[in-house]
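Re: export button greyed out
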Amino acid sequence: MKKFIFIGLFVTFLLSCALNFSGNAPTPPLSPLAELGHHLFFDTKLSANNTKSCSSCHAPQFAFTDGYKKSLGLFADVQKHNSPTIINAKFYKTFNWATPETHTFEKQMERPLFGTEILEMGCNKSEDKIPNLLKSEKLYQDLFSKAFPIEKNPFQWENIMQAIAEYERNLTSFNSPYDKDRAGDKNALSESAKRGERLFFSHTLQCMTCHRPPHFTLAAIEDDSSIYANIGLYNVDNQGSYPKRDEGLYEVTHKITDKGKFKIPTLRNLAFTAPYMHDGSVATLKEVLDIYENGGRKINFGDYKGNGKENPYKEERIHGFALSKNEKNDLLAFLLSLSDSSILKNPIFENPFAASAKKAAK
Ligand code: HEC
Ligand code: HEC
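Workaround output, generated via the alternate export path:
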């Protein structure tokens, strides 16, 4: 009997050691398909001049954004928009800032890979040049045959896109202080962040009506026009317009009331994703809060002069409010508690080429 108690205690001891050492649950390895996608996502061979990969504009250190106001294409042409994070994007029903017909990762990828409006990666879908280049490499021969074991010639664009999409589905993050608090860790949030949480969910501020948990965007819940909103960033010449050729949903629907409507972005990982908004025109979170407090953005000079607060197409819910300096700091602390720093250490999120170079150097 004593022996059993002893074994029982020993097993408990081993288990608790394992839990202590691993901290969070260890990351399970990627499937062969996702592992292939992991490499392709970071490989500049997927571009016309070997300079751009998906990760050029969606880099792990910026939570899969790029730190620019607007992304740069293959020849440094300025893309229309700020690069959004793709962490947890697998939960969205629609992708991009204002393209309501884009519902799958594969469809979304067509633009950066093959789009011609602005060359982003400049690949040509009807040519085999890039698939053949991959086929000539030992690394990809292994990865493709593991991912597509029964296909004779798996080096096809469809398979490349399928693999990248599978990798994207693995980019999830639910380990922020906010998530830990939800899971019962009473010390995960500071008192300030807890006060900020109450403000965020308050009737006056209404933040949660658009940035709804757990994804902090309606785009993971709805698939209709409610996922787009005009928050009064512009009111060019006080005519209700946004900067030309970038007026949001209106560019697609030509409905005047859709002017300035962009997809509600997630608020997760904001600590890594500055600058903010569809055009990267807001540098800091403090400025974001000033805009909401004011009920829109006032631009006093330049091409985009106008008072966003009076934009006739702005959401009624963005009506402004008054917060003390301390309350603003609390709200900021809550927003930052939605950032998950464990993504910066997760091998699935790392550049596999940099990781293997590091290993080789050891
Ligand atoms: C030149 C920079 C650039 C490259 C290269 C690039 N992207 Fe993007 N990506 C962007 C920008 C900018 C957007 C926002 C597009 C828009 O709405 O106008 C975006 C949007 C996305 C979205 C939608 C996210 C959301 O929140 O809706 C996904 C997913 C995505 N990209 C994946 C990829 C993949 C996969 C690749 C490689 C095949 C790639 N991107 C290459 C800049 C880039
Ligand atoms: C009516 C819906 C709505 C409400 C209410 C709302 N937001 Fe937003 N939020 C948006 C939209 C849409 C954008 C993107 C606007 C754009 O780029 O033109 C955005 C952008 C943001 C961003 C920038 C995120 C990024 O990655 O670029 C932050 C931060 C933010 N909101 C915080 C808040 C806070 C805090 C509140 C409450 C005070 C709030 N929002 C209330 C719809 C809303």
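Residues 52, 54, 56-58, 71, 73, 79-81, 83-84, 86, 89, 92, 95-97, 105, 108-109, 112-113, 120-121, 164, 168 surround heme C (ligand 1) (CB under 6 Å). The button fix ships in the next patch.
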